[in-house]
């Protein structure tokens, strides 16, 4: 039995309505947990005064320099916390299994552990993908982490460091998956943990892994290095499912929702006898008379037709990934998306994964050496230009990196001929 | 002092021990999916193995009772395995179709709405707010709870033209991320500086360096080293506040909420897009932010009625044009909608393309 509850007239208004209520959850916790009682007290004060009352500090675990988000209350009277049992309310950021898979036992074990050492409040998950064990005293941070660590779980990232990563459900349950997302995540993250656990980068660095260009984990918008699944050969087709689509949806839907929305007009409907047999052209019969024709060389792998006709159209067999660099949020120059720097690399063999790992290390090293303090990779590229970044990483220019060539004459091109020779050499190679 | 335990630097765990065995068995070998009904996905593997996934909304911030309830449902009605989506929905995987309906019933009966698949309004990606953030202008969990109460029917049905993803953020840093509709704190006044504290709390050169418009400079105030803000230059972004808490940017009255639309993470059809400002100046009205709900519902209502199948918010606006968006939603268009940040001229209409 915990101490008496504080009145929370404002929070009480968040208990009605059909959506699950976190306030009801906090109140259940508060029945046996003084920290939750006082958390509700401080939260109600925040609602009443429209003001936050937490400040940061320095709390960590032995051997690591990050991963704990310290929170001390600033709500004090005469120097004493108004809500003393929630005066320290730190969070442990813990990396989840890649793809966020759990057994019921693991959920129960985590919950029991956190009721023993912390408030019992867990967020599945934070915006970077951490399991957030919220509400811990300074004294309990170390034993809580030790026990989680013994269970097979490790601290995530915080501050100017490599951050916890995310991958989509991918190969575990999605036919669009073009590589082993969980393996890629674990290869890149687990080989660079020193940069996560001992923050010494100019600023945060995030990797994210999406199995296809649907980009379900927002890798292009939200990560410094996005690994996006794609394929080089023809879209795979399944005639039975394509015919089922037409039988269910009709020719008008095929024309408007599939053909009509293809961004590069790579799709068309032809009489079966008139489909092209040229290289790069493929087709699938949708009924006895007509076929959907795909001009694969002009397909930009946007995923739309695959999304609309699942199973009937599938990624090709020659699969791999595109790499995009420099996605980030608002601060300081405004949000930027990742820029295409590697249009395609295979990701199947052990050597392929090792290449991805080397690329990741290379990008991290360049960032560590060249970014200014508090500068994200996207901002650094904004400052130094993409070509200097490519030079630093050792990547060759490619027209897939741009939407259009420059529109101004402001460049000094003394070595134009040499650059042309390089291009010709690569084309010949 | 006792010897300290060295951490085991194990990193991101292997998901296989926690993954449904049918998903482990068919890893990388799925060939088909469909959407039997709202909240349910069907996947089939090359081997012929089948998995039904039932998706339900949660409050993200979960107490032990909630977590155990979700685990109990996994054991009683599913096969003991779950996963979470990036938007904090929980997914139960079953290999027997007969388990789907009892599982759905158990989830609804326990207060977890089943939905969030395909053309629904999914759970809102959100931040920490008053509950745990050190710089929040508002709360996140509460705003999300209030809004999801209002959008409940849109979560459990799938009646939108395409999927709709929402986010909320408690300051302009926008940790909630890009979304079809994003609700983000927008400060309207420069920071109020507590000059007594700056010298002790803030590393002044790095605070100066954080300002996107170079409006902050070192100054001596009342004989103490402090900082001053050129209020004519200040864009009230709050970037100085995290490294220097004495530069209080949050204001109960003047920190407002803004609404942004048209963010799209997918490459489907058009390239990914960032969300754009459509409304601001909404009051930070805890505990249920009704003014925000009203604008969000208005935008969703017009989108639902006007967009064509498969058009995301961004695709729809691209087709009807921004004048059409403001006309159809009735939202006022102001000088603040016209960008003036670096590179802004690319956002202006450099054509004679006008719709009448």
Largest interface: A-B, 128 and 115 residues
Order of helices and strands of chain B: HEEEEHEEHHHEEEHHEEEEEHHH
Cα-to-Cα separation, first versus last residue of chain B: 79 Å
Cα-atom radius of gyration of chain A? 26 Å
CATH architecture of the largest domain in chain A: 2-Layer Sandwich
Total separate domains of chain B: 3
The computed structural class of chain A is alpha+beta
- The top-level CATH class of the largest domain in chain A is Alpha Beta
Strand order of the largest sheet of chain B: 1-2-3-6-5
Give a written overview of the molecule.
- The complex is a heterodimer of chains A (429) and B (356).
- Chain A is α+β, with helices and mostly antiparallel strands and 429 residues long.
- Chain A folds into three domains: 9-150, Alpha-Beta Plaits (2-Layer Sandwich); 166-232 and 318-405, Sulfite Reductase Hemoprotein, domain 1 (2-Layer Sandwich), CATH 3.30.413.10; 236-314, Alpha-Beta Plaits, CATH 3.30.70.
- Chain A is built from 14 helices and 19 strands.
- Chain A has helices at residues 9-12, 22-30, 34-49, 104-117, 138-150, 181-190, 193-197, 219-222, 239-259, 304-308, 350-370, 377-384, 386-393, 416-428, and strands spanning 54-55, 68-69, 72-73, 76-77, 80-81, 91-94, 101-103, 118-124, 131-136, 166-167, 207-210, 225-231, 236-237, 267-271, 281-285, 290-295, 313-314, 319-325, 339-346.
- Chain A has a five-stranded mixed β-sheet with strand order 10-11-12-18-19.
- In chain A, helix 2 crosses helix 3, helix 4 packs antiparallel against helix 5 (138-150) and helix 6 crosses helix 11.
- The longest helix of chain A has 21 residues, at 239-259.
- In chain A, 52% of the residues are buried.
- Chain B is an alpha+beta fold and 356 residues long.
- Chain B folds into three domains: 16-109, Alpha-Beta Plaits, CATH 3.30.70; 129-188 and 252-339, Sulfite Reductase Hemoprotein, domain 1, CATH 3.30.413.10; 192-247, Alpha-Beta Plaits, CATH 3.30.70.
- Helix content of chain B is 26%, strand content 21%.
- Chain B has ten helices and 14 strands.
- Chain B has helices spanning 21-25, 64-77, 100-109, 141-150, 152-156, 195-201, 204-210, 290-306, 313-320, 322-329, and strands at residues 30-37, 40-45, 50-56, 61-62, 81-84, 90-94, 166-169, 181-187, 192-193, 216-221, 224-229, 247-248, 255-261, 276-282.
- In chain B, the strands form four sheets. In chain B, strands 1-2-3-6-5 form a five-stranded antiparallel β-sheet, covered by helices on one side. In chain B, strands 7-8-13-14 form a four-stranded mixed β-sheet, covered by helices on one side. Chain B has a two-stranded antiparallel ribbon with strand order 9-12.
- Chain B starts with 20 loop residues before the first helix and ends in a 27-residue tail after the last helix.
- The model of chain B has no long low-confidence stretch (mean pLDDT 96).
- Strand 7 (101-103) of chain A pairs antiparallel with strand 5 of chain B.
